[in-house]
Amino acid sequence: FNDQRRKGLRASLPAEFYFNILESPEDYSRGQASVIRRLGAIDAIKVPTPKTESQLLLSRIDQKLSLLVGLLAESSSRKSYTNHAVVLDISEFGLSFGHALDIPAESYIEIGLQLPTADSRMMDIAGRIIHVKNPAEDNSPYRHIYGVEFTDVTAKDQNEIVQWIFSHQRYPFRRRRELTTGNLFFKPRL
Protein backbone atom coordinates (compact mmCIF):
# COMPACT_ATOMS: atom_id res chain seq x y z
CA PHE A 1 0.00 0.00 0.00
CA ASN A 2 1.13 3.50 -0.63
CA ASP A 3 1.16 6.04 2.19
CA GLN A 4 -1.87 7.95 0.88
CA ARG A 5 -4.07 4.86 0.94
CA ARG A 6 -2.82 3.81 4.38
CA LYS A 7 -3.50 7.28 5.84
CA GLY A 8 -7.16 6.88 4.95
CA LEU A 9 -7.35 3.50 6.66
CA ARG A 10 -9.44 4.19 9.74
CA ALA A 11 -12.12 2.12 11.43
CA SER A 12 -14.61 2.32 14.26
CA LEU A 13 -13.58 -0.83 16.05
CA PRO A 14 -13.80 -1.34 19.81
CA ALA A 15 -10.56 -2.05 21.64
CA GLU A 16 -9.65 -1.49 25.24
CA PHE A 17 -6.75 0.65 26.24
CA TYR A 18 -5.22 2.12 29.33
CA PHE A 19 -3.44 5.43 29.66
CA ASN A 20 -1.57 7.85 31.88
CA ILE A 21 -1.39 11.59 31.39
CA LEU A 22 2.22 12.79 31.12
CA GLU A 23 3.69 16.12 32.19
CA SER A 24 5.82 16.29 29.03
CA PRO A 25 6.78 14.05 26.10
CA GLU A 26 10.15 13.40 27.79
CA ASP A 27 8.35 11.57 30.62
CA TYR A 28 7.53 8.71 28.25
CA SER A 29 9.74 5.64 28.19
CA ARG A 30 8.95 2.42 26.36
CA GLY A 31 8.33 -0.51 28.71
CA GLN A 32 10.88 -0.79 31.48
CA ALA A 33 13.50 1.25 29.56
CA SER A 34 14.08 3.64 32.47
CA VAL A 35 15.02 0.74 34.76
CA ILE A 36 17.40 -0.64 32.13
CA ARG A 37 19.02 2.81 31.69
CA ARG A 38 19.60 3.09 35.46
CA LEU A 39 21.16 -0.37 35.54
CA GLY A 40 23.40 0.59 32.64
CA ALA A 41 24.56 3.68 34.51
CA ILE A 42 25.40 1.59 37.58
CA ASP A 43 27.29 -0.95 35.48
CA ALA A 44 29.24 1.84 33.74
CA ILE A 45 30.95 2.80 37.01
CA LYS A 46 34.58 1.73 36.89
CA VAL A 47 35.54 -0.70 39.62
CA PRO A 48 39.13 -1.53 40.49
CA THR A 49 40.60 -4.60 38.83
CA PRO A 50 40.29 -7.59 41.19
CA LYS A 51 43.64 -8.67 42.62
CA THR A 52 42.77 -11.51 44.96
CA GLU A 53 40.75 -14.65 44.39
CA SER A 54 37.91 -13.40 46.64
CA GLN A 55 37.77 -10.02 44.83
CA LEU A 56 37.53 -11.86 41.50
CA LEU A 57 34.70 -14.04 42.85
CA LEU A 58 32.81 -10.99 44.18
CA SER A 59 33.30 -9.20 40.86
CA ARG A 60 31.80 -12.15 38.95
CA ILE A 61 28.87 -12.37 41.38
CA ASP A 62 28.26 -8.63 40.91
CA GLN A 63 28.25 -9.00 37.11
CA LYS A 64 25.86 -11.94 37.22
CA LEU A 65 23.59 -10.14 39.68
CA SER A 66 23.45 -7.07 37.38
CA LEU A 67 22.56 -9.32 34.47
CA LEU A 68 19.79 -11.07 36.44
CA VAL A 69 18.32 -7.79 37.70
CA GLY A 70 18.32 -6.47 34.14
CA LEU A 71 16.51 -9.54 32.84
CA LEU A 72 13.96 -9.33 35.64
CA ALA A 73 13.35 -5.65 34.92
CA GLU A 74 12.71 -6.43 31.25
CA SER A 75 10.24 -9.20 32.02
CA SER A 76 8.64 -7.55 35.04
CA SER A 77 5.02 -6.59 35.10
CA ARG A 78 3.67 -4.06 32.68
CA LYS A 79 3.41 -0.39 33.37
CA SER A 80 0.65 0.53 35.72
CA TYR A 81 -1.97 2.73 34.10
CA THR A 82 -4.39 4.90 36.06
CA ASN A 83 -7.12 5.33 33.42
CA HIS A 84 -9.15 2.95 31.27
CA ALA A 85 -11.05 3.75 28.07
CA VAL A 86 -12.47 2.20 24.91
CA VAL A 87 -11.28 3.12 21.43
CA LEU A 88 -14.02 4.74 19.32
CA ASP A 89 -12.00 5.05 16.12
CA ILE A 90 -8.50 3.86 15.23
CA SER A 91 -5.85 4.07 12.53
CA GLU A 92 -2.16 3.24 12.47
CA PHE A 93 -1.43 6.92 13.19
CA GLY A 94 -3.85 7.58 16.07
CA LEU A 95 -7.15 6.91 17.75
CA SER A 96 -10.13 8.59 19.36
CA PHE A 97 -11.73 7.76 22.68
CA GLY A 98 -14.39 9.11 24.99
CA HIS A 99 -13.87 9.84 28.67
CA ALA A 100 -15.18 11.93 31.57
CA LEU A 101 -11.72 13.30 32.45
CA ASP A 102 -10.85 16.88 31.55
CA ILE A 103 -7.66 16.53 29.53
CA PRO A 104 -6.47 19.67 27.73
CA ALA A 105 -5.54 19.56 24.05
CA GLU A 106 -1.80 19.20 23.40
CA SER A 107 -1.44 16.94 26.47
CA TYR A 108 0.79 13.89 26.12
CA ILE A 109 -0.31 10.43 27.19
CA GLU A 110 1.24 6.99 27.36
CA ILE A 111 -1.05 4.24 26.10
CA GLY A 112 -1.28 0.54 26.74
CA LEU A 113 -3.36 -0.64 23.77
CA GLN A 114 -4.68 -4.18 23.63
CA LEU A 115 -6.37 -5.29 20.41
CA PRO A 116 -8.82 -8.20 20.68
CA THR A 117 -6.65 -10.57 18.63
CA ALA A 118 -5.21 -14.00 19.27
CA ASP A 119 -1.92 -12.39 20.35
CA SER A 120 -3.66 -9.80 22.55
CA ARG A 121 -0.40 -8.38 23.82
CA MET A 122 -0.24 -4.91 25.31
CA MET A 123 1.21 -2.33 22.89
CA ASP A 124 3.23 0.47 24.48
CA ILE A 125 2.51 3.73 22.60
CA ALA A 126 2.96 7.45 23.29
CA GLY A 127 0.49 9.99 21.94
CA ARG A 128 -0.59 13.61 21.94
CA ILE A 129 -4.18 14.84 22.29
CA ILE A 130 -4.74 16.86 19.12
CA HIS A 131 -8.41 17.76 19.60
CA VAL A 132 -11.17 17.63 22.18
CA LYS A 133 -14.87 17.50 21.31
CA ASN A 134 -17.76 17.92 23.73
CA PRO A 135 -20.74 15.88 22.47
CA ALA A 136 -23.89 17.99 22.33
CA GLU A 137 -26.17 15.04 23.02
CA ASP A 138 -27.28 14.67 26.63
CA ASN A 139 -27.50 10.89 26.25
CA SER A 140 -23.87 10.54 25.11
CA PRO A 141 -21.98 8.24 27.46
CA TYR A 142 -18.89 10.46 27.14
CA ARG A 143 -18.30 13.92 28.48
CA HIS A 144 -15.41 14.51 26.05
CA ILE A 145 -14.19 12.80 22.90
CA TYR A 146 -10.43 12.98 22.40
CA GLY A 147 -8.43 12.62 19.20
CA VAL A 148 -4.93 11.24 19.78
CA GLU A 149 -2.00 11.29 17.38
CA PHE A 150 0.62 8.60 18.02
CA THR A 151 4.02 10.20 18.66
CA ASP A 152 5.97 7.03 19.50
CA VAL A 153 4.75 3.73 18.07
CA THR A 154 6.77 0.82 16.71
CA ALA A 155 6.43 -0.30 13.09
CA LYS A 156 5.40 -3.73 14.37
CA ASP A 157 2.51 -2.19 16.34
CA GLN A 158 1.43 -0.04 13.38
CA ASN A 159 1.36 -3.09 11.12
CA GLU A 160 -0.62 -5.08 13.67
CA ILE A 161 -3.19 -2.27 13.88
CA VAL A 162 -3.46 -2.15 10.07
CA GLN A 163 -3.89 -5.95 9.85
CA TRP A 164 -6.58 -5.81 12.54
CA ILE A 165 -8.47 -3.08 10.66
CA PHE A 166 -8.19 -5.02 7.37
CA SER A 167 -9.48 -8.20 8.96
CA HIS A 168 -12.56 -6.39 10.25
CA GLN A 169 -13.21 -4.43 7.06
CA ARG A 170 -13.08 -7.54 4.85
CA TYR A 171 -15.74 -9.40 6.82
CA PRO A 172 -18.75 -7.13 6.00
CA PHE A 173 -17.92 -7.19 2.27
CA ARG A 174 -17.60 -10.98 2.25
CA ARG A 175 -20.81 -11.39 4.26
CA ARG A 176 -22.74 -9.01 1.97
CA ARG A 177 -21.58 -10.95 -1.10
CA GLU A 178 -22.68 -14.23 0.51
CA LEU A 179 -26.12 -12.84 1.33
CA THR A 180 -26.72 -11.35 -2.13
CA THR A 181 -25.80 -14.58 -3.92
CA GLY A 182 -27.87 -16.68 -1.54
CA ASN A 183 -25.04 -19.12 -1.27
CA LEU A 184 -22.70 -19.11 1.68
CA PHE A 185 -20.18 -21.03 -0.40
CA PHE A 186 -20.29 -18.77 -3.44
CA LYS A 187 -17.77 -19.64 -6.13
CA PRO A 188 -17.33 -17.23 -9.03
CA ARG A 189 -18.00 -18.60 -12.54
CA LEU A 190 -15.00 -19.22 -14.73
Explain how this protein is built.
The protein is α+β, with helices and mostly antiparallel strands and 190 residues long. Helix content is 35%, strand content 27%. The protein has a 6-stranded antiparallel barrel with strand order 2-3-4-7-6-5. A hairpin with a 2-residue loop joins β3 and β4. α2 (33-43) runs antiparallel to α3 (53-75).
List the helices and strands and how they pair.
Layout (H helix, E strand, L loop, with lengths): L2 H5 L2 E2 L4 E7 L10 H11 L9 H23 L7 E9 L2 E6 L8 E7 L7 E12 L10 E9 L2 H27 L9
Antiparallel strand pairs: 1-3, 2-3, 2-5, 3-4, 4-7, 5-6, 6-7
Helix pairs in contact: 2-3
Tag the structure with descriptive keywords:
about 190 residues; alpha+beta; six-stranded antiparallel β-barrel; 7 strands; elongated
Percent of residues in beta strands? Answer: 25-35%
Q: How helix-rich are the residues, as a percent range?
A: 25-40%
Whole-number radius of gyration? 24 Å
Query: First CA to last CA: what distance?
Result: 28 Å
Low-confidence blocks of residues: 1-6
Strand count, sense and closure of the main sheet?
Answer: 6 strands, antiparallel, barrel
Global shape: elongated
Q: Would you count the extended β strands for me?
A: 7
The overall pLDDT, averaged over residues, is 77
* Strand arrangement across the biggest beta sheet: 2-3-4-7-6-5
Structural class: alpha+beta
Task: Work out the helix count.
Answer: 4
What string, H for helix and E for strand, traces the elements in order?
HEEHHEEEEEH
